[in-house]
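To illustrate this point, we now present one chain and its tokenised fold:
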Amino acid sequence: QVQLVESGGGLVQSGGSLRLSCAASGFVFSIYGLSWYRQALGKERELVASISMTGDSTNYADSVKGRFTISRDNAKNTMYLQMNNLKPEDTAVYFCQVVRRSHVYWGQGTQVTVSS
């Protein structure tokens, strides 16, 4: 079965950095595009960044462009989100997502809290 497990969240001061990881199993990782989403308390889940199956193509939400970098290691079945210059408004639960055979799979999420 498809499993996505996020890690790397935590509490950081404004301007700090975190690196999130998403470890995947149960499917052929290298042939699917992947995405990071986040959901702040009381708000809708929003797309943060996405990456193609080879990693050659990436897209970012305007709010994180220039600060976040999405990447993947197909040999390790893992996707990453490097987050720099974090701001209090980045506080949210971060989820990784894959769409496989028209079904959307989510991880359990990892909490990122940025203090001012």
